[in-house]
């Protein structure tokens, strides 16, 4: 339905790369603002793109997991005070803290969408956030660049996985 996470990961990854670019070449404040404010538009942009592609952009009304999906989505803005505390303590922990929150938020997607690959994405983001925060505490934008690239890579991996059943059901070319 959500194309293996393709559209959401492209929107999210693009936002992280925009934020990292602003944080690198403009100012940390602009990079932070782009990710925090832009993050509010990830879901609406994903829905808009899915509809533009002629895809369904919501779970069916009878799906009992719809409420869980909404709750998982709200874990990110509800974690903003934690990200802010880390950032106030050390500015360069902004992206690592955000990576940990976003990575943890992807873990329930394994159950929601039946794709174990979301666990790999979760581990990459959480592990990357911890590693950058500890080993490279002077690198402000590195976590933004890394997360953007990982999300874009995941977009196409997830899409490939989601297409497997369609390919297996397609009649062979004659």
Q: Would you give an account of this structure?
A:
The longest helix is centred in the last third of the chain and has 28 residues, at 142-169. This protein has 9 helices and no strands. The mean pLDDT is 88. Helix content is 75%, strand content 0%. The chain has helices spanning 6-25, 28-38, 42-52, 66-78, 80-89, 94-106, 109-113, 117-135, 142-169. The two termini are 29 Å apart. It is globular. With 174 residues, it is mostly helical. It has one domain (3-58, 65-168). 32% of the residues are buried.
Provide the helix percentage: over 70%
Give the total of beta strands.
0
The residue-averaged pLDDT reads 88
Characterize the main sheet: none
Catalogue the unreliable spans: none
The total number of structural domains is: 1
Could you say which structural class the secondary elements and strand pairing correspond to? mainly alpha
- Assess the beta-strand content as a share of residues: under 5%
Distance between the amino and carboxyl termini:
29 Å
**Radius of gyration (Å):** 17 Å
| Tertiary shape | globular
Counting H and I runs of at least 4 residues, what is the number of helices? 9
List keywords for this structure.
174 residues; globular; 0% strand; 9 helices; mainly alpha
Give a quick summary of the entry.
The protein is an all-alpha fold and 174 residues long. The protein is 75% helix and 0% strand.
